[in-house]
Amino acid sequence: MAAGSETKNPLVVKEAKQVMSQWKYEIARELGITPPADGYWGNLTSRDCGAVGGHMVRKMIQMAESQIASKGTWK
Fold first, then answer.
1. Which terminus, N or C, of the chain has the lesser number of Cβ atoms within 10 Å?
2. How far apart are CA 39 and CA 1, in angstroms?
3. What is the DSSP letter of 13?
4. How far is 75 from 59, CA to CA, in rounded Å?
5. What's the burial of 28, exposed, middle or buried (CB within 10 Å: 0-12/13-18/19+)?
């Protein structure tokens, strides 16, 4: 995750930090965006960073909807 982003948007499940970071790189590659080797996303365009974040959100919503549908109830 970007430097300082932890304070603005902390993860609800702190143990997910590593997995979320890896997933961000996977999503970037899926979209044809070359992720930064040094971990600093500030040199990428806002459009590219937004595309990665937006795609992550769409996939998280899809996963949540699938989970809710399989349970047949909201908890």
1. C
2. 8
3. S
4. 20
5. buried
Q: How many CB atoms lie within 10 A of CB 69?
A: 9
Residue type, 49: C
pLDDT tens, position by position, 16-51: 888 998 999 999 999 999 999 898 999 999 999 999
Tokens of 16: 């997910």
Q: Cα 23 to the chain's mean position, in Å?
A: 6
Distance of alpha carbon 69 from alpha carbon 31, whole angstroms: 27
Question: What is the length of the chain?
Answer: 75
Task: Name the residue type at position 74.
Answer: W
